[in-house]
Amino acid sequence: MLGKKPKTAAAALALLAGLGGTALAEVPVVTIYGHENPGDAELMERIEAGMAAQGMEIDIELVGLSSSGYADALSLRLLSGEIPDIIYFQGGDTEFANQGILEDLRPWIAEATHLQGALWPHNVERLENYPYLLYVFPARTKSAVMRQDWLDEAGGQAPQTVDDWTELLRTLSSSDLDGNGENDTFGVTLPGNTSEMDSLFNRAFGISATWMQNAEGEWIHSRVSDQERDKLAYYQSLYAEGLLDPEFVTTNWELKEDKFYTGRAGIVMGTAGLVVDIYRSKMQQVNPGTELVMLDPPAGVDQGLIAVDVAKESRGFAIHARSDAKEAAVAVLDFLVSPEGQFIDRMGVEGEHYIRDGDSFQITEAMGTWYPRFFVANPDYWSPPVDLLSPVAQGSLAQGAQYFTPDNAFVWPSDLATDVDAAEQYYRTSVFRFVSGEWSMDQWDDYVQGWYDAGGERMTEHARTVLQ
Amino acid sequence: MTMPPETAPAGPDAPRDGNLPSAALILDEDWDASQPAGRWLRLRAWWPYYLMMAPGILYFVLFHYFPIYQARLAFQDFRIFDDNIWVGLKHFTTLFDSPAFFQVLGNTLIISAMKIVFVFPVPILVALLINEIRTTNLRRFIQSAIYLPHFLSWVVIAGIFIAALSPSDGVINEMRGWIGLNPVGFMTDSGSIRWVVVFSEIWRSAGWDSLLYFAAIMAIDPQLYDAAEMDGANRWQKIWYVTLPGIAPTIATLFILNVGMFMNAGFDQIFNLANDAIRDQIDIIDTYVYRIGLQSGQFSLATAAGLFKGVIGMILLLAAHTISKRLTGKGVW
């Protein structure tokens, strides 16, 4: 969406006619770069109206960029020197922060009316570590979900331990629960790599954080720890037994969902809240009446979800440090987490996404297609008047909160970028080779040396200066 | 050196009102185009052609020559607002110290060499085979069919190959099953993936690239075939002694241009075919530049990698041109 032509035209006419031109010119304009979504123009008008009702006349110009390749497109736009007042980043922000282009948001938040109260605990920690991005949203933890009817057929007991999980995956793989006459269902599928499995299994194998202390008390990366070795050995056993989708590495996001809805995979992991809700809606479109059930992370050495990275927000809104409309930009962000702003952004359009009858609200089927464009405030600050998410999606958010532990990862300096990249690529390739059995677990020491050679050495040296 | 005759443009062969000049005017030995006046006359005489060339020239200036100037970023620390800071060879040092760079460079060289050896000859073979089809309709149908993959994006082609090579239900592995062979995960096998890259490139481009060779074959004087036939040459001999020598200049030119593009191992193709299992086998300079440059925001470092690639490509182009000139007397200029 590129601006609002009718409003611009009206302003131009007013100026020409000399009617209130001065007054219009005083309305601050806040430009935002963000994702392109249907209904953006109407949403911006409602936000402007909501702010105006509180005495804040602001003209919001949202420039929508295509979701496909958003980060790259944004990066190129910003490099051309076209920098708006508010920028939604989805990665690639650190270089801009390093060059002083992004505003330190902490003083603004401290002065804001609503922002402080609306933050989630992980937001507070992230802003302290990296004060340039704001993303008032639940932590993007992953929860495992499966069909309730399949769990019932598999015995009805949700797995609690690693062994229970193995047994459930075995049952899903050996039974023809989708009833297609073929034994072609895998216990679990993953999109491209094992990171979704890690979200659930890391703590069961004792991987409590990105950096862990070895027997000598030295900081080492968890990827070269004995706990990681044990976890990969477990994944290897799942793969060998056919419980883990053997084609997970060539499976993308769309394919992962497709395998889940069509019965080729029994369990998938989804981001808590909205994504789990979307999985449920799509599952019900393909298999009417089917309900999803959330599974607990397995208990082992420990139990819980992977530690949440609090080094910085991985996505979020930044304010241009040289913007002339910083105060207005902060006012927009502050309004969006206020009760009025949350109502507008999260409830959708009255009559279309919800029906109001006095103080009672009822959401319509169309609510399944609506999602907040900006923020989801901490529920202690504001909760919608009616449940917007299904029970399983609500449960996934509660699970994320229940198992929240902050990670000790930190932001890498730019001169280590090539080392971080090389070590990441080496790790990902090695994981597949271990899991697929191409590499035996006896080759673990060679892998560890390879990881240190591929940049891990310099990363570890730096980490030891940071963590101490 | 003589000036062009003053009367030439006003003569009977001079172009008027946009009419093109005759060969007699252009071949006039007294018209020295190296002189300013000669150049102007020539420009005036050929202006419709220069006009047609203008968009192409503009494209090359904007997207190929201007970026050469901007390659100085490889020697600077990039600043979005302020002036860039000159850092000399710092980014090249970082690049060559990078644990992944030489692996990426090796992959680029290997994949490019495989494409030159295995992909480059295929369109020649296809053009020769199409030329042997005598039924016009059948030839047209085959040409149309083999051109089609060229119009598919690499996203689609990668999807087709991933599905076709799937070890569980891919058509290739099903065919292997018919003859008692075990399924192979071609897309995740380190030993297979570069061949998948080569084969998918052939599948996509062989038909389309054969167009140039086929056009060159069509330009061969039919009397040469008649003469060969009268001398008792069979089909193979006619291909060997008439067709191949006839298209040799085209082959030489395209070979040199391909060598010049040697370091461009195919970003779109690799980006779409890569996965975690085999990335270390097919990660090339272009994908590395994309990751480090665009995704990690190291723009100067990425420019240094791109410049390094460009210089190697230039050296290869000049070497191939020189060798070709010496061996065959033909080059790109």
Which terms would index this structure?
heterodimer; A: 468 residues; alpha/beta; D-Maltodextrin-Binding Protein, domain 2; 4-stranded mixed sheet; 19 helices; 12 strands; B: 333 residues; mainly alpha; MetI-like fold; two-stranded antiparallel sheet; 16 helices; flat; disordered N terminus
Could you characterize the architecture of this molecule?
- The complex is a heterodimer of chains A (468) and B (333).
- Chain A has 19 helices and 12 strands.
- With 468 residues, chain A is an alpha/beta fold.
- Chain A has 2 domains: 202 residues, D-Maltodextrin-Binding Protein, domain 2 (3-Layer(aba) Sandwich); 226 residues, D-Maltodextrin-Binding Protein, domain 2 (3-Layer(aba) Sandwich), CATH 3.40.190.10.
- Chain A has a 4-stranded mixed sheet with strand order 2-1-3-10. Chain A has a 4-stranded mixed sheet with strand order 5-8-4-9, sandwiched between helices.
- The N terminus of chain A is likely disordered.
- With 333 residues, chain B is mainly α.
- Chain B has 2 domains: 38 residues, no CATH class; 239 residues, Orthogonal Bundle (MetI-like fold), CATH 1.10.3720.
- Chain B has a two-stranded antiparallel sheet.
- In chain B, β1 and β2 form a beta hairpin.
- Chain B starts with 22 loop residues before the first helix and ends in a 5-residue tail after the last helix.
- The N terminus of chain B is likely disordered.
- The interface between A and B is large, with 44 and 34 residues.
